[in-house]
């Protein structure tokens, strides 16, 4: 895929795979990358003022934040829905079934709801 001059939005961009997506897009010629993440401090620490990166505070499970991000990022031509959730212990280590169910819902919500909520404004 030719990414030259692409304007992309990467959700979950503050760390791990998301940060690598941002770096890869820029290496391949993207003109600009909106780096979405839930915490402004984590975003600022991840990208050190690179002018081709536009940090966006964005919780993909919050339709109001997604709408605000879509209003800012009107020039996006590529969306990478990478947002996810992690917990130190999570559903596998849960002491009882109700806690495991709650953790599982929290784990899956960014992937299931986030992809749908983020796709709507970009369509």
From TrEMBL:
Record Pfam families: adh_short
Per its record, what are the GO molecular function terms? Answer: oxidoreductase activity
The alphabetical list of record keywords is:
Oxidoreductase
Q: Which InterPro entries match?
A: NAD(P)-bd_dom_sf, SDR_fam
| Family under the similarity heading | Belongs to the short-chain dehydrogenases/reductases (SDR) family.
Name of the molecule in the record: Uncharacterized protein
Q: Which organism is it from?
A: Paraburkholderia humisilvae
